[in-house]
């Protein structure tokens, strides 16, 4: 299966990992500002966000795009926070 999408940077990355990484990096408030949906702005949690994003393709697309756009910054932030 990994042969079917060798150039897809999201291949093999779980939606839960994406949401957790974005929430950790940006915080829920900033995440809700960047993608204004209730699951990020009203009592946010990973569980409620996953439920919403799995049923709402346009929102999932925006979350995945934000993740791709932020991936380098997230990796650098993690490196510095571990030093």
From TrEMBL:
The lineage of its organism: Bacteria, Pseudomonadati, Pseudomonadota, Gammaproteobacteria, Alteromonadales. This is Uncharacterized conserved protein. One of its GO terms (molecular function) is DNA binding. InterPro entries: DNA-binding_VF530-like, SAP_dom_sf. It comes from Ferrimonas sediminum.
